Amino acid sequence: MKSYLDCIPCFFEQALRAGRIATDDEQVLKQLMDELGKRLHQISLDNTPPETGRLIYRIVREITGNSDPFQELKHQSTREALALYPSLKRTIEESDDSLLTAIRIAIAGNVIDFGASATFDIETAIKEALENDFAICDYSAFKDKLAETEEILYIGDNAGETVFDRLLIEQMNKPVTYVVREKPVINDATIEDAVQAGIDQVATIVSSGTDAPGAVLNTCSPEFREMLNQSTFTIAKGQGNYEGLSSEDYSIFFLLKAKCQIIANDIGVIKGDIILKGMNTGT
Amino acid sequence: MKSYLDCIPCFFEQALRAGRIATDDEQVLKQLMDELGKRLHQISLDNTPPETGRLIYRIVREITGNSDPFQELKHQSTREALALYPSLKRTIEESDDSLLTAIRIAIAGNVIDFGASATFDIETAIKEALENDFAICDYSAFKDKLAETEEILYIGDNAGETVFDRLLIEQMNKPVTYVVREKPVINDATIEDAVQAGIDQVATIVSSGTDAPGAVLNTCSPEFREMLNQSTFTIAKGQGNYEGLSSEDYSIFFLLKAKCQIIANDIGVIKGDIILKGMNTGT
Q1: Strand A204-207's sheet: what is its strand order?
Q2: Under CATH, to which class is A71-279 assigned?
Q3: pLDDT-derived band of residue B65, with 50, 70 and 90 as boundaries?
Q4: Which residues of B fall within a CB distance of 8 Å from A40?
């Protein structure tokens, strides 16, 4: 997905939000805004938003001198999600369609996104994801493809959300390769965050090679791109991965909550909707 | 009121909103964003938001080549407000406290603000202003000062809102000098807009000399500043005038709706609240 003009004010909001996690020095934060302003002409609308996110968080690191401002918040999100794990596991096991319930819960976890907002309410997100209708629900194709495949490529998104992914991975009951970001960017999950969530107990964790907050292919490693080429069943979580991959030719199931108006418009849904969308999956 | 870091993303939103009124050429709009980005380091947080608004709309004019993109929207707002005039006049005359009702209606008119939002609902704003409690209501001091004064200085805000101001001016029943902006900026009222609203029938219209979307004193004419110095009863409408004048030493009654979170925080109210706030008025 390319960027839209309306993404530009949001880039400044994102930079400010991330900057504020790193410092409360107003002068440094103003300098951060100014630096993004200066480089704005280098940001093409043909770039995907996570490509620009990558640049923004580089500027945040550069100006604030903090290489991972979200580290503690990420650990905290994972701890909080792990505390919910037993009751969510029970909800899945007791439901009529455990796979669909696990998908709903995995999407609920996508609300843990400090790139999209400074605050979120995970309990409400779970309740909504369990009760609300999907705006797009390619569940039938998802089940068919899952039954056929021998292994799963699962492109993760944020720390904490990883725990919700683990529940879906356990439910799918096939060998999974779980993909994380190479370097810290916003609260996106790295290997460390995936391990904290216990993903190493249910999947093989690999890095996509990128430091963008989404699978932006030209910033990913050749090994990851080859995996994507070879994959017979791919799941991509969250907005950043949707933005990075939605214009590519791969067969992918996107699981996300449309947290911003621009993405909602791009997909043709309403902000806040939950989505299970198959791309090039024969749906 | 100084600017806050959170105003910065909003500056880009405002520029984009104004730019889109002037052109739908995406490349020109991107150029507008880039130009604002380049000049961001020149914008100090010590500036009031309307000082920056002035710069933004200069860039909009410069990049789009359109010196008054809001002209037609302003005429339309005034026509729509004039259509409401008879029924609003009746509402005021039939109410128990006609002056307070006229104040409420004048504040409702403040919702006609293309700087704060691309859309608004005047009917809902009127209903809310007539029914909701004031968050700050220095009405008693307002009445006392009004009874004492021999003339009124009324600093207007937006085109269309002018019609609502006219209703309050008629109700106060004292000689009024009505102040407008010198040059078009956003949908702020100029002499032409005030005349279209019929203000010339109830007040003397003067220009403040500014092309900022608010009474930013160092951009106003010496004549206007002298009027403000001499005034025994001053009303200032809207956010832009509040932002421009709230750190000055004059005695002023501000009538506004807090349409943005930053101003709401600055005043100590909730976004959407209606306010009649006396500054240095002995309240």
Answers
A1: A136-137, A274-279, A252-257, A234-237, A152-155, A176-180, A204-207
A2: alpha beta
A3: very high
A4: 33-34, 37-38
- Local structure of residue B137 (DSSP, 8 states): E
CATH topology for A7-64 is Helicase, Ruva Protein; domain 3 (1.10.8)
Cα three-residue angle B69-B70-B75, rounded to 5 degrees: 135
**A chain contacts of residue B45, beta-carbon cutoff 8 Å:** 26, 30
Tell me which chain B residue has its CA closest to the CA of residue A5.
B30
Secondary structure class of A126 (helix, strand, coil):
helix
Query: What was the pLDDT predicted at B283?
Result: 62
The CB density around residue A247, as the number of other CB atoms within 10 Å, is 11
Task: Report the gap between the CA of A120 and the closest CA in chain B (Å).
Answer: 19
Name the closest residue on chain A to residue B28, using Cα atoms. Answer: A5
Kindly write down the DSSP assignment for every residue of A200-260, as one continuous string: GGTSEEEE-S--SSS--GGGS-HHHHHHHHH-SSEEEEHHHHHHHHTTS-S-EEEEEE--S
- A198 C-beta neighbours (distance < 10 Å), count: 16
Max Cα separation, chain B?
Answer: 56
Q: Kindly state the DSSP code that residue B197 receives in the 8-state scheme.
A: T
CA B223 – CA B177 distance, rounded (Å): 13
Q: What is the 3-state secondary structure of A155-202?
A: ECCECCHHHHHHHHHHHHCCCEEEEECCCCCCCECCHHHHHHCCHHHC
Interface contact B5, partner A, CB < 8 A = yes
> Residue B205 is encoded by which pair of tokens?
């219209």
C-alpha triplet B232, B168, B177: angle, nearest 5°: 45
User: How far, CA to CA in Å, does B263 sit from each of B157, B240, B244?
Assistant: 16, 10, 12
Instruction: Name every residue whose Cβ is closer than 8 Å to that of residue A51 and which is 6 or more positions away in sequence.
Output: A212, A216, A219, A244
> In the predicted model, what is the mean pLDDT of residues A204-216?
96
Q: Which two tokens stand for residue B94?
A: 């039939």
* pLDDT value, residue A121: 86
Digit-coded pLDDT (tens) for B118-149: 678 888 889 998 999 999 999 999 999 999 99
Query: Where are the domains positioned within chain A?
Result: 7-64, 71-279
Q: Are A17 and A114 in contact (CB under 8 A)?
A: yes
Query: Cα separations (Å) of A176 from A181, A203, A225, B242?
Result: 16, 5, 16, 59
Model pLDDT for residues A57-112, shown as the tens digit of each residue: 999 999 999 999 999 999 999 999 999 999 999 999 999 999 999 999 999 999 98
